[in-house]
TrEMBL record:
Residue ranges of domain AAA in the record: 3-177
InterPro entries attached to this UniProt entry: AAA_dom (IPR025669), DNA_Partitioning_ATPase (IPR050678), P-loop_NTPase (IPR027417)
Organism of this sequence: Paracholeplasma vituli
Pfam family, any one: AAA_31
Transmembrane segments: none
Record protein name field: AAA family ATPase
Lineage, uppermost ranks: Bacteria, Bacillati, Mycoplasmatota, Mollicutes, Acholeplasmatales
Source taxon at top rank: Bacteria
Amino acid sequence: MGKVISIANQKGGVGKTTTSVNLAASLAFYNKRVLLIDFDAQGSATTSLGINRSQLKGNLYDALMGDKNLEEVMLSIPVLDKYHMHMVPATIDLAGIDMKLIGLDDHVYILDKLIRKVKDSYDYVLIDCAPALGISTLNALYASDSVLIPIQCQFLAIDGLTQLLNTVRVVQKNLKINHRELTIEGVLLTMLDKRTKAGWAIVNEVKEYFQEGVFKTFITSNVAAQVAPTYGVPILTYAPKSSAASLYKSLAKELIENNENKH
């Protein structure tokens, strides 16, 4: 049975989409069966993987509204010659999704019901969440086994996280009633400028706050990772020998080991 991981932080610009796309590709590199779900109306993960949203015959919105199932809107994404992952794309249709979902029965479980039908086909299902704590992000959290929180190594990095953690606690409490669990997969430090004392100060602050919950892998500031989306491919395809590719593979390996050691 696949593990469902939300990549969430209501603060924008922390590297959520970059993490989602490149972690998914790196898990595929390690022969894991991966499904990436773009749950952001901006569709950044979708465009980062070279998908022309205007030519899509279906997207996540159609599945959430019950017009299609997830398999019908999935696309196969090449990573390197022998590796592939699947993706559920997003379009601007998702812009008003919170208002649409709130009118439905069990409105926080809509995505969960969709994922349950396909999760056995995957080792990992990653959800790229919008930078907000609305109904859509709640849907992602209720569908997930864990949440991965990217934090950029800049001033006020932890500021505002209390709200996300409080939301996670509410979901944890509610899921327990159904004998399910939501854990924190880990905190990922992103955009670290190794040359600055300020960057390392944030690293120490986050480690002090989250203790063992911080991934050992840090994602440093890297030009290749910023350029890859303009070519519509993950970093493993764009620059497989770059330091950024090595870092995301390291993160994927750490995540796999953390999960395999628990079983």
